[in-house]
Design goal:
α3 (about 240-260) crosses α4. The protein contains five helices and 16 strands. The longest helix has 22 residues, at about 265-290. About 15% of the residues lie in helices and about 25% in strands. By secondary structure, it is of the alpha+beta class. The radius of gyration is 25 Å and the shape is elongated. Strands 2, 3, 4, 7 and 8 form a five-stranded mixed β-sheet that branches. It has a four-stranded antiparallel β-sheet with strand order 6-5-9-10, with no helix packed on it. The protein starts with a strand and ends in a 5-residue tail after the last strand.
Length: about 350
């Protein structure tokens, strides 16, 4: 049993252009592009249904999902939710039903996560002239857009997956913030990284091209925020980047003091050297993957230590090389410092063949 979110490659609302009589209803869906708090429909999908005959009495609307084989349903019947969408806010006029924003139901018989695209089908029930009727999914009803696209990429809540639920960090966002593709979930299960935001519910991008989550991107279930390695064999909060990387900064400055004062034992320097080694290793490994699009890391003191191999200018030692380390001369081009990533690193990849 899964909660399912849907992503389409096109991010703006679309207007319906087709009408079909029962039992082959055609439904057109557009995605909201509003920021958090703009309305109660922020985490929903607007839905419009046109049907005929216009005097049909529609009493139930169900939505179903099924996997695809080479773009076709392959005769696989949709797994319909028993939830009647008419219990959600809507307006009805003869031949048309409009939902300002629906929340997709749980699909109780969806036993596996789909790795590829899925088809969405709507089923209408009601009566015509006092005779009970129901739309036939085999005859039509597959959700389509005005440009003809009818394949969706399903997203699932990674934070609810066994083995991952205990690896979240940070606050939660309304509607869920760990919506991920099946391959993203598989990658997380195969990796030790604590993670935070992936994608928001039912929302692709804002009109400015960003996510309604706090930072840019995070709209396709393939972009993950993760903690840095602590250099001590794990991913503890402090040296993982908590408090905007403040504990990492404190370690860097403490190590610089040990170097400046030339003390015999330098435990902070050793911890910093281990931190740099582990994180350079992880980032290089992930950047080598052919489907990795980009990796963002922190700027400022993070960049100074991790990329330049130097202490910050304001440290006790000044901008000198960190002993045992110099500049990361073979840093992959996909790794880029960014001001908003001192408390985590960001992995963006293509889901097609991960």
């Amino acid at each position: 049993m899964f909660n399912i979110n849907l992503v389409d490659l096109w991010t703006g609302p679309r207007r319906p252009v087709l009408q079909h009589p029962l039992p082959a209803a055609i439904v057109h869906v557009g995605f909201h592009t509003k920021r958090r708090g703009a309305s109660d429909n922020t985490h929903t999908i607007p839905l419009e249904i046109n049907y005929s005959p216009a005097d049909a009495n529609i009493t139930e609307v169900n939505v179903g999902i099924n996997g695809l084989i080479s773009g076709s349903t392959g005769g696989i019947p949709p797994n319909f939710s028993t939830t009647n969408l008419l219990t959600q806010n809507h307006t009805s006029t003869p031949g048309q039903i409009k939902f300002p924003g629906i929340s997709l139901p749980i699909f109780p018989n969806q036993g596996t996560r789909e790795r590829e695209g899925v088809a969405i089908t709507v089923r209408l029930k009601g009566s015509v002239g006092g005779v009970e009727v129901s739309s036939d999914p085999a005859a039509g009803g597959r959700v389509a857009f005005s440009d003809g696209r009818n394949v969706f990429k399903p997203l699932y809540l990674a934070g609810e997956v066994e083995g991952l639920s205990g690896r979240r960090y940070g606050p939660r966002d309304n509607g869920g913030d760990s919506w991920a593709t099946t391959r993203t979930i598989e990658k997380l299960l195969a990796s030790p990284y604590p993670f935070n935001d992936i994608s928001s519910q039912h929302v692709t991008q804002t009109s400015a091209g960003g996510s309604i989550l706090i930072h840019k991107g995070h709209s396709d279930g393939q972009q993950i925020d993760m903690r840095y390695a602590d250099g001590q064999g794990g991913y503890s909060e402090a040296l993982g980047g908590a408090n905007n990387g403040e504990y990492i900064k404190q370690l860097i400055y403490a190590a610089a003091s040990e170097v400046k004062n030339n003390v015999t034992l330098k435990p902070k320097l050793k911890a910093l050297q281990d931190w740099i080694l582990k994180n350079r290793t992880i980032l290089a490994f992930e950047a080598r993957h052919q489907k990795t699009r980009i990796i963002y890391i922190g700027d400022s003191f993070i960049e100074e230590a991790l990329v330049n191999g130097k202490f910050p200018s304001a440290s006790a030692a000044g901008p000198v090389d960190i002993p045992g380390w110099g500049a990361w001369t073979d840093m992959p081009g996909k790794v880029r410092p960014d001001p908003d990533h001192r408390h985590h690193w960001h992995l963006s990849f293509s889901d097609e063949n991960v």
